[in-house]
Amino acid sequence: MLSLTLPLPTILMQSVLLLVTIAIEALVLRNKLNLTRKTSIEYSLSINLYSTVIGWLIFFLLPFSENKFLELNFVSFVYFNNFYIKPAEIWSIYQTILLSCVIFFFLICVIELKLLDILEALLQTSEEHKKDPKASGKPVVLKKRITVALLKTEPSKVSAIIMANGFSYTMILAILFLLQIG
User: Fold this and answer.
1) Which tens digits make up the pLDDT trace of 67-95?
2) CA distances from 167 to 55, 171, 172 (A)
């Protein structure tokens, strides 16, 4: 019989950190992209929820089977908040964590940037759609807007997303550090 163990403290911590992230990133998006408070919160909420789900899916789909050392340490950290390592191997796990954090930071930035573009494409109302209300419901128009959103990105959005993620990741690291020493 299979047993299911939920890492409830990890889920609760992820939820709290996600709330902090949404607040910080909404503030940066509002200031950098000149959005209203409501719009910036909605954008931040949407892109962070989707990027969190995508990030966890990517992480769990990575092939850990070749490296039992990483798998054992990840499970130990998620469930027990400490690493299962010998003192001689501690530098190896820290190098792996640092490299993973840098890769995940840029991966999440790209995911959030494209999610923001797609979200704006889905919500945009251009002048031609105001003139012709029938055109906005056509699948061809929606497909074209999403294709353009995937292929084209404004530089101001790139800098806003990187800055928002930088601030929110810094705050997350500070919170995690304070929890570890407290």
Assistant:
1) 677 777 777 776 676 777 766 777 777 78
2) 18, 6, 9
User: What is the rounded distance in angstroms from the CA atom of residue 161 to the CA atom of residue 158?
Assistant: 5
- pTM higher than 0.70, yes or no? yes
Distance of CA 165 to the CA centre of its chain: 8
Q: Under a CB-based contact definition with an 8 Å cutoff, are residues 7 and 79 in contact?
A: yes
Q: Is 48 exposed, middle or buried (0-12, 13-18, 19+ CB in 10 A)?
A: buried
In one letter, which amino acid is 80?
F
| Spatial separation of the C-alpha atoms in residues 144 and 24, rounded to whole Å | 32
Q: Which of 64, 136, 61, 122 is nearest to 96 (CA)?
A: 64
